[in-house]
């Protein structure tokens, strides 16, 4: 019996993330310093951990409703109203998910059909395209490399018109992984004015919203485009709760009624004790991200200074915790090969720009969600490597 040809053919279009592939490929190097994954080095706030412990002790380990605990949805509603001026009814417009990844999966499975296209500014986080491909739809990238990774309204509208009726959705991610680009109120309003003219969904991944380094606060496109926007949020980055897997989908009542179907049959519901911890995070830890954000800013500035001295071109990120740096022209532009060699010789790991699509080749991404001690040593080793290669 040969089952090799009996799989879903769409699986042939996807592979395990190159980020994970690369991370695993160099993990056997003794003492390697990793600036690879978006994993905060901060610990989960004590008051959040205590709330989850209390829930476990109180035997809160049974199923919640599919949409999640109503108290958590209410806390989410209040948080988004206070932070981003968004109005979502807890009982109709918020769905608790197993992290942002499941939120994306439930949303894309819920809205896409075979033959649809989805627009995505690039280079971009590589987690979107595989989900789109698994349902037989296609990602169409908008190349932003010639504009310092910034999408413009003209670029957006031109891409929408080119796709025509095939276009089902636009994915926005800001602050962005891997570039750190984010958008002002003026820019977001301009995007909304264009998008509202077309019958398409706007999937807005704003999981790094609390890590905004500009003088202005984060502006969600859902403020201007509530009926079309599917807002993705998470506690992974804001509260260093990556392993707790708590995310949220926020949208219109009509959209949530549909997406709860895909959510239900993918996962049923998020883990109950983690939801109780999330209630505490949102109610009494509204500003838990601020000390982390301030420290990330210091790390960002240090890396930019050191790498610029070595000849890297860097667009200063305004959010998230990544540096996306152009490899100097006189070095190997194959980002995978460049970083494999660096890792083997200096025991430091970063992520090849090629992991973020064809427009990321020639770049490297490093995460500054690592300790300052690790970052300083990594920069020291990078300098040594660059000098040795040049010599």
UniProtKB/TrEMBL annotation:
UniProt-listed PROSITE patterns: AA_TRANSFER_CLASS_1 (PS00105)
Enzyme class of the recorded protein, top EC level: transferase
Pfam families cross-referenced by the UniProt entry: Aminotran_1_2
EC number(s) reported in the record: 2.6.1.-
InterPro entries xref list: Aminotransferase_I/II_large (IPR004839), AspAT/PAT-like (IPR050596), NHTrfase_class1_PyrdxlP-BS (IPR004838), PyrdxlP-dep_Trfase (IPR015424), PyrdxlP-dep_Trfase_major (IPR015421), PyrdxlP-dep_Trfase_small (IPR015422)
Annotated Gene3D superfamilies: Aspartate Aminotransferase, domain 1, Type I PLP-dependent aspartate aminotransferase-like (Major domain)
Family the UniProt entry places it in: Belongs to the class-I pyridoxal-phosphate-dependent aminotransferase family.
Name the record gives this protein: Aminotransferase
């Amino acid at each position: 019996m040969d089952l090799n040809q009996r799989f879903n053919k769409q699986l042939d279009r996807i592979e395990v993330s190159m980020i994970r592939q690369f991370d695993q490929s160099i993990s056997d190097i003794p003492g390697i310093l990793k600036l690879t994954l978006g994993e905060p080095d901060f610990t989960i706030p004590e008051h959040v951990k205590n709330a989850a412990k209390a829930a476990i002790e109180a035997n809160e380990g049974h199923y919640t409703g599919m949409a999640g605990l109503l108290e958590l949805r209410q806390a989410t509603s209040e948080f988004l109203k206070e932070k981003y001026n968004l109005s979502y009814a807890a009982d109709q417009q918020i769905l608790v998910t197993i992290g942002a990844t499941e939120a994306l999966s439930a949303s894309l499975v819920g809205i896409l059909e075979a033959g649809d296209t989805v627009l995505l500014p690039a280079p971009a986080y590589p987690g979107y395209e595989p989900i789109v491909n698994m349902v037989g739809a296609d990602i169409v990238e908008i190349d932003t490399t010639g504009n310092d990774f910034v999408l413009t309204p003209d670029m957006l509208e031109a891409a929408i018109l080119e796709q025509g009726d095939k276009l089902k959705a636009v994915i926005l991610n800001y602050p962005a992984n891997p570039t750190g680009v984010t958008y002002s109120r003026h820019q977001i309003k301009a995007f909304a004015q264009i998008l509202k003219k077309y019958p398409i969904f706007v999937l807005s991944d704003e999981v790094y919203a609390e890590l905004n380094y500009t003088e202005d606060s984060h502006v969600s496109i859902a403020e201007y485009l509530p009926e079309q926007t599917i807002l993705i949020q998470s506690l992974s980055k804001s509260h260093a709760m990556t392993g707790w897997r708590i995310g949220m989908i926020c949208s219109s009542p009509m959209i949530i009624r549909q997406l709860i179907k895909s959510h239900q049959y993918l996962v049923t519901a998020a883990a109950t004790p983690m939801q109780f911890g999330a209630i505490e995070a949102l109610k009494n830890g509204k500003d838990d991200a601020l000390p982390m954000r301030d420290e990330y800013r210091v790390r960002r500035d240090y890396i930019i200074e050191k790498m610029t001295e070595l000849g890297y071109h860097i667009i200063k990120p305004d959010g998230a915790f990544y540096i996306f740096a152009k490899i100097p022209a006189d070095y190997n532009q194959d980002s995978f090969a460049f970083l494999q060699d660096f890792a083997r010789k200096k025991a430091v790991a970063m992520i090849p720009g090629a992991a973020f699509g064809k427009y990321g080749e020639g770049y490297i991404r490093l995460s500054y969600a690592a300790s300052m001690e690790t970052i300083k040593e990594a920069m020291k080793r990078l300098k040594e490597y660059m000098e040795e290669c040049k010599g």
